[in-house]
Amino acid sequence: MAHPLQLGFQDAMSPIMEELLHFHDHTLMIVFLISTMVLYIITSMMTTKLTHTNTMNAQEVEIIWTILPAIVLITIALPSLRVLYLMDEINNPYLTIKAMGHQWYWTYEYTDYENLEFDSYMIPTQDLPKGYFRLLEVDHRMVVPMESPIRMLISAEDVLHSWAMPSLGVKTDAIPGRLNQTTFTMTRPGIFYGQCSEICGANHSFMPIVVKSIPLKLFENWSSLMLS
């Protein structure tokens, strides 16, 4: 989860988020180089002692400042397209979960199991046990097996919502009457927090998302307990 004075992204908990972090660092270095070059050129122009600096026709310079931005755009666009296609690729998921947004809670349905469905409400501050996070903890967490491809089917019952989990690199809109899908794979066990990222009404900031990643054997025990 996020922490005070955090400047960067959350730690990656899925392969897609790792790719996004690498792309972010790659693009940020290009931005730093461009900013440094522009600052150097501006400083040089302001401090130069040359007199004839109002040249109106410089074909070489125009060619350079046309080709260089094109090269920069290509070096950014190609990795971006690669990550974009990776995010849309869904191959043989081990488990499919349907998340339905409501004002203002989430409903999770494990479509591979019969009658495994529950609502997930935020725990009010006055009822929060010690050690839990205020405005982020829910009464029923979404439990998934680690190191297993998970497909999420996301929609909404009433208004627009958005199912977002920063540490997984997932943010998918929940639109009434439309079924969107995304995928992720948890690389290690833990509890991860997200929130609705679409302004959906008065209690928009009070419908958090909590995903709990556990080993497959423990997940089978949990699912059996929920179905019993």
From TrEMBL:
Q: Which domain of life is it from?
A: Eukaryota
* Transmembrane region(s): 20-42, 63-85
| Single biological process term from Gene Ontology | ATP synthesis coupled electron transport
> Any idea where this protein resides?
Mitochondrion inner membrane
Q: Required co-factor?
A: Cu cation
Q: How does it sit in the membrane?
A: Multi-pass membrane protein
- Keyword annotations: Copper, Electron transport, Magnesium, Membrane, Metal-binding, Mitochondrion, Mitochondrion inner membrane, Respiratory chain, Translocase, Transmembrane, Transmembrane helix, Transport
The reactions it catalyses are: 4 Fe(II)-[cytochrome c] + O2 + 8 H(+)(in) = 4 Fe(III)-[cytochrome c] + 2 H2O + 4 H(+)(out)
- What are the residue boundaries of the Cytochrome oxidase subunit II transmembrane region profile domain, all occurrences included? 1-91
Q: What does the record say about how the cofactor binds? A: Binds a copper A center.
Report a single Gene Ontology molecular function: cytochrome-c oxidase activity
InterPro entries named among the record's database cross-references: CcO_II, CcO_II-like_C, CcO_II_C, Copper_CuA, Cupredoxin, Cyt_c_oxidase_su2, Cyt_c_oxidase_su2_TM_dom, Cyt_c_oxidase_su2_TM_sf
PROSITE patterns linked to this entry: COX2 (PS00078), COX2_CUA (PS50857), COX2_TM (PS50999)
Residues in Cytochrome oxidase subunit II copper A binding domain copies = 92-225
Q: Name one GO cellular component term.
A: mitochondrial inner membrane
Q: What is its main location?
A: mitochondrion
A Pfam family: COX2_TM
Q: Which family does it belong to?
A: Belongs to the cytochrome c oxidase subunit 2 family.
Please name the NCBIfam families in this protein's record.
CoxB (TIGR02866)
Q: What does this protein do?
A: Component of the cytochrome c oxidase, the last enzyme in the mitochondrial electron transport chain which drives oxidative phosphorylation. The respiratory chain contains 3 multisubunit complexes succinate dehydrogenase (complex II, CII), ubiquinol-cytochrome c oxidoreductase (cytochrome b-c1 complex, complex III, CIII) and cytochrome c oxidase (complex IV, CIV), that cooperate to transfer electrons derived from NADH and succinate to molecular oxygen, creating an electrochemical gradient over the inner membrane that drives transmembrane transport and the ATP synthase.
Q: What is this protein called?
A: Cytochrome c oxidase subunit 2
